[in-house]
Amino acid sequence: MVDPSGGFGTPFDAHSPEARAIAELFTATLGVCGVIFVLVAGLVTYCVVRFRARPGDAEPVQIEGHKRLEITWTLIPCVIVLGLFGLTARAMARSDAPPDREPDLVVIGHQWWWEARYPSGAVTANEIHIPSGQDVIIRLESADVIHDFWAPALGRKIDATPGRPVFVRIQADAPGVYHGACAEYCGTQHAWMRFEVVAEEPAAFNAWSARQAAAASPPESDSARRGARLFKDRTCVDCHSVRGLAPAAKAAPDLTHFASRKTLGAGILPNTAEDLYVWLKYPQSIKPGCHMPSLRLTDDETQDLANFLMETP
Ligand code: CUA
């Protein structure tokens, strides 16, 4: 399993056929460039030493036009470029094959979070679940500006452009958590537009999808019930939805089953009761410029709202 606290790994840390094709192309290109670098740097060094000017040297022989030399130094780069072109075309065919069927899920980039919508009706944010070992097709959209979807261990990088949906394939060889991020500067909180791809065995994925598709159960504790009222009264409901209790709004992350997520604020905090409290109380201190306003909640109100969200696992 990929370390959830770590970075994105290296370009060689591939966990899917698509990412492997890209990693192989990278390695081959690096190898060719490495050989050229050593050859050129070595020859330059050799010539500087071997042919340096010595006292009393005459003017060296001047060569003007040398067909064989010119053909050689034109042909060699042509062969190298053609070879790299062939390798690139092969990697593209493997990592970027056009979709031949309906997408398995829709991912939408927003300033500054990711929405994932599934045919089952499940909607989640910043945590994209997929079945492991299967070819998954994502239809990628943007709700506002250009974002860029990239989970390096699983596949290629691809822009999410408003009004121009694109398709991307990802596949995870084995269950695990794979990091992703927005890779196109998209405004003040671009750096906190992280996501995780959670690959699970197909049976576990189906169970997750069915659980997420279900509506939230009504809050049980008194505090959570007060929180549910605050959720409606304090305008949370204008942007967020909790299916079954406060549906429809799509401007901000769907918070149905919010408690089941591992992070909040697109990766800026772990999703614990304490961190959720801090986030609800001071969103603009934690993620300055984000579209979550500070609602100036009292301590008790913040606690009630946090309890309400934490009771929707
Ligand atoms: Cu979205 Cu950068």
Structure, described:
With 313 residues, the chain is an alpha+beta fold. The protein has three domains: 17-51 and 67-95, Helix Hairpins, CATH 1.10.287.90; 105-213, Immunoglobulin-like (Sandwich); 222-310, Cupredoxins -  blue copper proteins (Immunoglobulin-like, Sandwich). It is built from seven helices and twelve strands. It has helices spanning 17-50, 67-95, 202-213, 222-233, 273-281, 283-286, 299-310; strands spanning 105-110, 113-117, 123-125, 127-131, 136-142, 147-150, 158-160, 166-170, 176-182, 194-200, 263-264, 269-270. The strands form three sheets. It has a five-stranded mixed sheet, with no helix packed on it. The protein has a five-stranded mixed sheet with strand order 4-10-9-6-7, with helices on one face. It has a two-stranded antiparallel sheet with strand order 11-12. A hairpin with a 4-residue loop joins strand 11 (263-264) and strand 12 (269-270). Helix 1 packs antiparallel against helix 2 (67-95), helix 4 packs across helix 7 and helix 5 packs across helix 7. The longest helix is centred in the first third of the chain and has 34 residues, at 17-50. The protein is elongated, with a radius of gyration of 27 Å. The two termini are 24 Å apart. The model is unreliable at 1-5 (pLDDT under 50). Bound molecules: dinuclear copper ion (CUA). Dinuclear copper ion binds next to loops.
